[in-house]
Amino acid sequence: MTTDSLSIENYKPNALRPRSGQTFAGITVVLLSLLTALFISRIDGEVAAIWILANAFGLTLQRSRFCFASAFRDLFLFGSGHNMKGIIIGLGISTIGFAAIMHWIIPNPAAGFLPAEAHILPVGLSVVVGGVLFGVGMVIAGGCVSGSLYRMAEGYVASWVAIIGVIIGLGALTLTWNWWWAFSISTEPKVWLPAVGNLGYTGAIVITLLGLVAIYLLVTFMEFKNGLFMPHINKKIIPAMNFDDRVRSTLDPVFKRGWPIAIGGVVLGIISIIMYTIHMPLGVTGELMRASQLGLGWMGVDVPVLDGLSTLGGCTGRSGEPGLLGHTFAITVGLLPGALIGALLAGEFKLRLPTQKRRYVQSITGGVMMGYASGLAVGCTIGAFFSAVPSLSLSGWVFGLAMAAGAFIGTQVIKRIG
Q1: Which of 159, 231, 278, 346 stands the most exposed, by the fewest C-beta atoms within 10 Å?
Q2: Measured between alpha carbons, how far is 365 from 354 in angstroms, rounded to an integer?
Q3: 172 in a domain, yes or no?
Q4: Distances (CA, A) of 119 to 192, 197, 315
Q5: How many domains does the chain have?
Q6: Rg from Cα positions in the chain
Q7: Which parts of 279-357 fold into alpha helices (H)?
């Protein structure tokens, strides 16, 4: 018997054994989240499926560092379009999938109906003001709503403060919504591109994809003007691997190493499509809106009936659904364990306090701005942009452009305050 055969016989595989306490905690959170899904499934199978998808959503955000605030901030501050390209890829994939779903719902877009649950939102002053305000707020706060949510699960205290600000902002919007409705929103049209002229689905898809290609080229040009380039990295020679090494070489790229932003965009696009087939596109502010209204009630403030909001769709428009274990709860709250799983398995969870006290002020100020803006625009970067553009809604493009303008303003503010 050879030495090699002896070593193989005596070998005890331990590839799946947790290497650290964080890994063990991550596995525990996985099991608890699955048990939660099982419990929810006894009440509503659809909500349980959304919970699992939200876990995957949070994991993807965390592993790929997918954040709209950093995408715009890096573009304007450093001329880097790295994160923005991931968003473009996700939008392109979602557009194709959403179009197929909407065609199945409404084969003829000229019939005068809009596809159910698609994020086709009003276009007008409200979305412009909301987009600009949101863009400024997310840069000042250091993260958009979804970005702040997944960073909460990583231990960033500033992100917790930002989300508290978002809830406060949504509460302020609740108290002023009926004024906005009477002043502007009630007369703002919903513009669905397939129903415009003779565009149809094909024309709307072509316009959307061409718009995304144009943005990709613009971003690439901005990188070129700023002298940025991606260096070529020689691949390491991989030594012979035993069983443990082979297993870990499969698991580590998923759970230990950061994902390329392009992969994050692809996965988010696919998750968004699956989410729409189950119920509705992604959106995270609905449950935060419910939390804000609950907080107002606790403070003894009469929460008004919000005129027309439930007729608009979008994630914020779903905030009035009854019961705790609803769709908005599953999407927003389900994101957190997914992001926590990603942080723990990668060994990245750590309680992080801001080093400067002004960071608390920035976080809550930016959060309040984002909350008010996301209520006004009936969604944040996920609901009013990432889900609206693939819904072939003009509102998604208007919100995106207004948000870009706001992000530019926000970067100038950040430069001044250091």
Answers
A1: 231
A2: 15
A3: yes
A4: 10, 20, 8
A5: 1
A6: 22
A7: 285-298, 327-345
